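Quick log. Single chain, no ligands specified.
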Amino acid sequence: MVAGIIVPSRGPHGQGISLIRDAEIENTIRTYATPVFRVAGLDPSHVRIYLVNDRSLNAFVAGGQRLFINTGLLLRSDSANQIIGIMAHETGHIAGGHLSRVQSALAKNSVPVILSYILGGAAVIATGRSDIGSAIIAGGQTVALRNFLSYSRTQEASADQAAMKFLDATKQSANGLLDFMRHLSDQELLSAARQDAYVRSHPPTEKRISTIAAHIASSPYSDTRDRPEYQVMFERMTAKLYAFKNPFGATMHRYKESDESIGSRYARAVAYYRKPDMAKALSLIDGLINEHPNDPYFHELKGQMLFDNGLVSDALVSYQHAAFLLPNSHLIRRDLARVQLEAKDLALLDSAIRNLTASLAIERFSSFTWRQLAIAYGRKGDKGRRSLALAEEALLINKPDIARYHAGFAEQIFTEGEREWLQARDIQLAANELENAIKRRRSSGN
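-> predicted structure:
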């Protein structure tokens, strides 16, 4: 999967879970969640949202203000309102400080470490291409999710009450939350092996369902429909995600050639691109761009199509257009820099460095972006900054010896007291702490 979406990577036993990264999907979820975060008294910029590439219906909070949502939950939702209701409930857990002991223990850990505890197995960081540059969890479900993320009935009821309060405060209906809870209630009739993880860690009860239904009967916003732009975003997100995660035939059956809606054409463009049939894929995406020339995500997808087929110069034009239309997207700017580096044009190096630096300013914990920055500085002959970037990458992939080596090299180049010199010293201290943490985990058998 490309256009920022990550291919699921397999662990040593044939199992694996990955995060997906996609500018459009992340922006959609963030748009839905921001009003809820604000009325909950949370700073939206402090809440990190992660999309887990897993077909099961699940969402959970871990490691402080970090919300994880499975792609299966997005694809099995019927509307934006359902997704918003679920996020409102999970926000209730964040605002209520539920699982505070576990959350505080994980708050300082990286996302791969958090997921390794929750999902089981060892966490590693993939490096290389940007479309596989994220956290991968290898191994079996050695830590049961329902044990790790189990809530008391009181906490669940409290999160429900908070969710209804947040939805009312944002003038949105709780019908989506009720529909989701009824679906979970139906799942309780299944065997534990067939139940989705969410129903095991967030067991619904008839009392909870009745409470939400009573709220809907009295709330002035129960008949409020999704904002039109929310529904358009929902249809685009699910079409794109479905096409990337399912075989060509399944996508074409669901999004038929006779359907000329934006979502259907979007899904078919992805399906033909993955087939691959570039002529049909480009025809569909060009048609969408002609109708919506200022849509950055259509230009981004076209750029990815062209780049993956070796048409770097053409891909560069598309990515530049996408970045111009959405300059604050760190993912688009990161991928633009990747294309600029692949063009092997020295005149583009400074622009690539600016794009990578801007991306890291928003998301510092991306090993792939640090690697790309190291490549850019290396081509400029800037050995000191190249080593700093490689040292930062090494920290993120749990290689303290390599981080110490590159940071030590950089320390010798920069003048004492310079920002880069201080960065090198900080990396060495962090590498020592990481090495000690690794030793403690090994000695404890984890």
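Residues 16-218 form a domain with the Zincin-like fold (CATH 3.30.2010.10).
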